[in-house]
Design brief:
Elements lengths: L3 E5 L23 H11 L3 E5 L2 H4 L4 H9 L4 E6 L7 H10 L3 E7 L11 H12 L4 E4 L4 H10 L5 E3 L21 H7 L5 E6 L15 H11 L4 E4 L11 H10 L5 H16 L7
Parallel strand pairs: 1-2, 2-3, 3-4, 4-5, 5-6, 6-7, 7-8
Length: 281
């Protein structure tokens, strides 16, 4: 079974050479070498490396450096800027960059944009032209996210983090963490979307191995089908809630998945969605 983590954030220390835009509650650094070591320890073969928006905004230069050093272990996704009038050219250049697998747009509850934002329209048309899937973050803003997906039926969307708001610290977990689940299940009707089952362990109200995630996840699997569900850790955003091993092992250990379901969830669906599989050596 090939295991692919559908979302990791890798970054170097905050220095004048490549300063962080924000300083989140993450480790001081998780370099490409450190991420590969963490993956090797728990048997993860490869990962989709999402260039960190909070740290680097739209600059994916570090991701490119890491992928060049570990070409068989990472495929790259870059956030793109709806306010950039040249964003179509940015996407065209990204397509030419070795190891790239997609782009990302940010549409969380804090956003002042509307679903018909012209910048989004430019990006999503370009994604079709250059055959990129679009990762979309709209936690806390699910209705607007669904409207955007419906507006662009020819674009391939990959919904970040189950579409559900997730905490950065244990005390930030909502009293009803799965409150938006009915909307996420309805979204499954849109055949141009797949969904990342990333950061799911951070939604647990129980200690490791987080047994209370499986009933709501079963509803996700039933609605979306395993071939449209992409497991991942969202390491390092999840750092203060779970460590990397704790985000991986519950999906190995559970008796709620058959061998074929686990293989699809933990690798097959991600390989299909991104058109990429890892190679070691």
């Amino acid at each position: 079974m090939t295991i692919i983590d559908s979302q990791v954030h890798v970054y170097e220390a905050n220095t004048p050479k490549r300063p962080w835009h924000n300083v989140p509650n993450w480790p001081a650094h998780v370099t490409g070498d450190e991420m590969v070591a963490a993956m090797d320890k728990v048997g993860v073969d490869g990962a989709i490396f999402i260039s960190s928006f909070s740290m680097y905004q739209y600059d994916a230069s570090y991701a490119v450096e890491v992928q060049r050093a570990h070409p068989g272990r990472f495929a790259l996704v870059k956030p793109v800027n709806p306010d950039d009038p040249n964003v179509v050219d940015v996407i065209a250049d990204w397509k030419k960059t070795p190891g790239t697998a997609g782009i990302r747009i940010m549409f969380p509850k804090e956003s002042t944009r509307k679903f018909d934002d012209p910048g989004f329209d430019r990006i999503l048309r370009a994604a079709v032209k250059y055959d990129f899937p679009v990762n979309i973050l709209f936690w806390g803003n699910v209705d607007a996210g669904i409207a955007l997906i419906d507006r662009h039926p020819d674009t391939r969307f990959i919904v970040d983090h189950l579409g559900i708001m997730q905490p950065r610290t244990p005390d930030a977990l909502a009293a009803e963490p799965w409150a938006d689940l009915p909307k996420v299940l309805d979204l499954a009707k849109r055949k141009n979307a797949v969904i990342k089952v990333t950061g799911a362990c951070t939604l647990s109200q129980k200690p490791y191995p987080f047994p209370d995630i499986w009933d709501p996840l079963a509803r996700v699997f039933d609605a979306w089908g395993f071939e449209r569900c992409l497991w991942g850790t969202d390491w390092t955003r999840a750092f203060a809630v779970v460590n990397y091993e704790q985000a991986v092992e519950p999906f190995h250990l559970t008796d709620r998945l058959s061998a074929s379901e686990r293989a699809m969830l933990m690798g097959g669906a991600t390989a299909k969605a991104y058109g990429w599989s890892p190679t070691k050596g």
